[in-house]
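HUMAN: Please help interpret these tokens:
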Amino acid sequence: MGPPRRGLLTTGREVIPIAAGHFAKLEQTIGFSFRDRRLLQQAFVHRSYLNENPAFSLPSNERLEFLGDAVLGLIVAESLYHTYPDLPEGQLTRLRASLVQQRTLAQVARSLSLGEYLYLGRGEEASGGRQRPSLLASTFEALLGALYLDQGLEAARRLVLNTLKPEERLKGPEAIGKDYKSRLQEVAQAQRQTTPVYRTVAEEGPDHEKQFTVEVLVGGQVMGRGIGHSKQDAEQRAAQLALLDLEAGAEREG
């Protein structure tokens, strides 16, 4: 294909040429070297840039974002399906939503410094577009879509699991800064003026490999079910799912 074409990146009033090695650091960070470098460039072309540079040779990243969103959903769903074999569809759906939400994807994008590589129009640049969560989340999805087209599903899966780290984000209390039970109690009291109640509904296996199933009720309604090798672990997992449900409901109402 020959060397990649040079583009333009605006920063304030300056117009800076994009050198061939502009994305080398990013490729090193994510662990992939693109075969089609124009795909990589396109992942960072915001529509505001094209509005000011209509002759630019690449389209915006919106189609790649659309594709990346679908690929991300598949990879996260597959990971959750295997990680939580006993959870029903509704709870898996809530876990997936917590992983692919804008705030989480923006955090990943910042960790990769994706904002530094964006092609932005002057107005978008001046308004802080490089740090805008919605724009960063979309850019991560576009990058994922580009990688999927360039190197296939397995490469896309590696990027998601290496950067999003779904198991780490979901398995421990550190994911929300305190344990799920305490957080759930705060939210339940604030939203419904009630205290969560936990009940053990199953206890299986020999003493050295006990498995407990616990349900948590908020206002008499079962809001989450957790499975663990101790009652405490099962209660934390149940509280995690209930918390996701309550917070998602609060966002919809807000």
About this structure: Residues 25 and 31 are 10 Å apart (CA to CA). The chain has twelve helices and five strands. The chain has two domains: 7-67+96-171, 176-253.
